[in-house]
Amino acid sequence: MNKKWFSYAILWTPRVIGTLLFVMLIIFAIGEGIPNPMKQSLVVRIEMLAMFIMWFGLLIAWKSELIGGMLIFLGYTSFCVVEWQAPSIKFPFGLFLFVGLLYIFSWWSKKDNKYST
Q: Which ranges in 1-117 belong to alpha helices (H)?
C-alpha cells in the first residue's frame, strides 16, 4: 500500500503544483501585460525566454515527464545564471525547481520500477 501511495504522490504532486504555477503565470501575464521584448534589455529578454522555457516545460511534462522536467530545470538554471545568483528556493520561484525535479524523479521511478504500480 505504501509503494502505491508513494507512486501516486510522486505522479500527481508535480502535476498539481505545476498547474497552479502555470495558472499563476497566465494571471500574471494578463494582469501585468506581456511587454514588448524588443524594448527590453538583453538580460530581461533572456529572463523572459527562461520563463517561457519553464512554462513550456510545465505543459510538456504532462505527456513526457523527463523532457518537461529537464525543460523546467533548464529554464530555472538559465534564469539563475542570468541573475547571477545561486538557485533560490524562495516562494514561488523555488517551486519551479521543485516541480522540475519531481517530474524527473517520477520518470526515473517509473523507469526503475521501484515505485510503479
A: 2-32, 42-60, 65-82, 93-112
